[in-house]
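User: Here's a chain of 472 residues. Predict its fold as tokens.
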Amino acid sequence: MFRLTALELARIQFGFTISFHIIFPAITIGLASFLAVLEGVWLWKKQTVYRELYQFWSAIFAVNFAMGVVSGLVMAYQFGTNWSYFSAFAGSITGPLLTYEVLTAFFLEAGFLGVMLFGWNKVGPGLHFFATIMVALGTLISATWILASNSWMQTPQGFEIIDGRVVPVDWLKVIFNPSFPYRLAHMTVAAYLATALFVGASGAWHLLKGRDTPATRTMLSMAMWMVLVVTPLQIAIGDAHGLNTLKHQPAKIAAVEGHWENKPGESVPLVLFGWPDMMAETTRYAFEVPYLGSLILTHELNGQIPGLKEFAPRDRPNSTIVFWSFRVMVGLGMLMLLLGIWAAWARWCNRLYLSKPLLRFAVAMGPAGLIAILSGWFTTEIGRQPWVVYGVMRTENAVSNHSALALSTTLILFIVMYTIVFGTGVSYMLKLVARGPQAHHTAPDGVAGDEDQNLRPARPLSAAPDDVDPTP
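Assistant: Prediction complete.
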């Protein structure tokens, strides 16, 4: 297939499946916490608008959760089918970490999910709120274990190699490896930010359609507050993560910056745009800002970072890819900051719900958080190459002995099936978003009266309505 090797096809296949998978847990993490906030505010203020938003977003959460589970199963199988030598070498660490994720997080989510989706008329308000919090906590615990496993592959420690296999000797060092805190914070905040943009785009879209209701105003307002507060926090976390990466994976930072060599006594410029040429060992058409690279990367005016030429060619990540994937992520981050500031100014001028240019911008930024997550993930994973466990095991030694024909066939099948299955799921989820929040009858005691809930089968997708045509 396009003269690609079996290794390249295996990497593309894993990258394709994980790109589909990562967007669903990101939205799950953000929506679960958003639902907990909505229910908490509803219990506090007893305002029906928060109950309406909870019902609206819980239906979308159910669909998204189901797609995340399905796409996650494929990832687990691929470790055994396409990366069997990696599993044999490092399975004693990655296996238990993924098992802990199932035992402590997935079971927690699954155990309380039914109460959260179908328990409004079956349990008390306090117990239902507790179930929602447990689901939100489960998503965060799940992210913790997954990122502990992946971070160990980036900055491995707490192990020995005995008889050609990794043996854990200190689980605390394995879990709390040097990059873990930064990657956990960065990914969690990214999930919150992506969800805020998704929610904000939904509210803005309904306002542009003339559906100016308390529910649409509330979700736009909450989303814009989140974007305003969280985006600067994410920038600060990203800066700290970058310093950590420079310490432990300097080749990745050099590739991200398209930086090939240092000149004695000179600072590192920031290359805003250019085209890193791996064969010529230079960044062509570079547009540079003097000193800014040193300030950002080392926090010193004349600080230097290792250049790619200091690493053997076989140890260099593909700078052409990570240079641009990183800039896509950062560029979208700057647009998020602009959106937050613009929305704050519009709020100050009492134009938040009326400014059509702002609302259109909010709609356009709806997928920006997910695109930024994918771009950041590409930067992290491709920047780790040529290692699957950094400095310990090369990717070429981790792949299973499959032919290029077999991997080409399965990759095509994956593309076709994922397009059908997840294309249908995403389309259905967007139809739910287009339907908008619906008003619910509330009984005198403050408990919503969805009488038909008692007749619904207890499966996640049944939490979503059958009729998803947008209301006129």
